[in-house]
Amino acid sequence: MKFAAGLFSILLIASASPAVAANGVDFEQSCGTPGRAFWSGSGTSCDSYARGVTAGLMLSGQPGFCAPPSFDARQILPIVRQFMNQHPELLNYSQAQIVRMAMHQVFPCR
Question: How confident is the model at residue 65 (pLDDT cuts 50, 70, 90)?
C-alpha cells in the first residue's frame, strides 16, 4: 500500500509540475498557451519556473543575454511563449535552454 501511495504521489507531482518536463515540447504543452493547465497569470508554476531559470542564469554571471535595467520579470513567460511559437524546431532542447535562447533572442548582448 505504501508503494502504491508513493508511486501515485510521484506520478501526481510529475504530471502537475512543468519543472519535471524533459524538454521544450513538454514545456510548450503545459505552458505555451494562456488558458492551458498551470497558466493563470503571474505566480503560476510556468511563470515561476521561467523566472527561476532566468534568475539563476543572471546569478551565474554568464546568462547569455543582456536584459536592460528596465526589464520586468513579468515579461519572461510571454517572451518564452513567443520563442516557442517562432521556433518549434528547437523544442527538443531542455526547458532551461529554451528560456535562455528566448531571452537571448530578445536581449542579445552587443
Answer: very high
Going by C-alpha positions, the residue among 60, 63, 72, 61 that lies closest to residue 97 is 63
Cα angle 60, 61, 66; round to 5? 115
- pLDDT attached to residue 57: 92
For the chain, the domain total comes to 1
CATH code of residue 51: 1.10.890
Q: Are 18 and 49 in contact (CB under 8 A)?
A: yes
For residue 36 the three cell numbers come to 492551458
Is the pTM of the predicted complex or chain greater than 0.90?
no
